[in-house]
Amino acid sequence: MNAHLRTALGLASRGVPVLPLRAGKVPFGNCPACRNNACGGRPNMKSSGTCACPRPCHAWAAATTAPATLAGPAWATAWEQAQTVAYHPGGIGLTVVDLDHAAAIAWARETLPATRTVPTTRGEHWIYRGAMQSANAVRDGVDIKSTMVYARWLGSGTGTMTALPAAVRALIVKKPSPVRITQHAIPVPAGGGQCRHRTPAYLDRGIAMAEERITAATSAVHATVYRTFLAVLSAHGRCGCLTDAHVGRLFAAAQTKGESPRHCNDAWTNAQTKLGL
């Protein structure tokens, strides 16, 4: 059996959707309309995310865990010519941060939480649990590979895989507008003593939980953003501890879910009004 096919079948048995790649990391076309890339590499896609061709075609849409498809006659020639195996990260709820050079790796080590890493030809893949929208060139030497893309299978890597952080989700915000929040002069409640929220761990934990609540929303995003802003202000809004940096993190999380800067500002203002701040 072809070594690449053997690798693909092994991954498929673990629930990883895979496909063959030819030279140059280019996918194969599996149907007559797309053979030899006749469709230009951009076949029509159904809303379900599968190729509109009669059978699964190429690129991420072809990734499958079905042994009968992988080892079947439609892909027999493909595996004979394959140069490597690819997989669909978003199909198993993963995101790959593709770091193309040493400077990108250095940035990731300073900026992102540690996770499983896989060496590549020029850099590293950092793999996180959680899927998101894919995007290329989010910064110099950094691509995001998750939904509707494929990534080369380069081995299991090393390290413990961790949850997809908000810092990675924020990278795909096309034009993150500067957060302009009016700082209200809200005095510390009477009673004296240092405000408990000034303990970094207490406040940071609250902001992190709020970010996760927003990014985890799969529906009713507007309402989720408003309720989360309301909860944050209820807990931290009367002591003067919130800064533009904290609010900026919340706005960035909301914008990665498709919220506009204007809606973020409106939701924040409405929450302040509701609480009489």
Explain this structure to me?
By secondary structure, this protein is α+β, with helices and mostly antiparallel strands. It folds into 3 domains: 3-87, no CATH class; 92-144 and 160-165, no CATH class; 196-275, no CATH class. The chain contains 9 helices and 10 strands. The protein has helices at 3-12, 67-70, 76-81, 102-111, 166-169, 200-215, 221-236, 244-256, 261-275; strands at 18-22, 26-27, 84-87, 94-99, 116-119, 124-129, 135-139, 142-145, 151-152, 162-163. The strands form 2 sheets. Strands 4, 5, 6, 7, 8 and 10 form a 6-stranded mixed beta sheet that branches. A 4-stranded antiparallel beta sheet has the order 2-1-3-9. The chain is elongated and about 70 Å long. Residues 42-51 and 176-194 have low confidence and may be disordered.
Residue share in helix: 25-40%
For the record, give the distance between the C-alpha atoms at the N and C termini, rounded to a whole number: 69 Å
SSE-based structural type: alpha+beta
Give the low-confidence spans. Answer: 42-51, 176-194
Largest sheet features: 6 strands, mixed
Write the H/E string, N to C.
HEEHHEEHEEEEEEHHHHH
Number of strands: 10
How many helical stretches? 9
- Coarse morphology: elongated
Residues in β-strands, percent: 5-15%
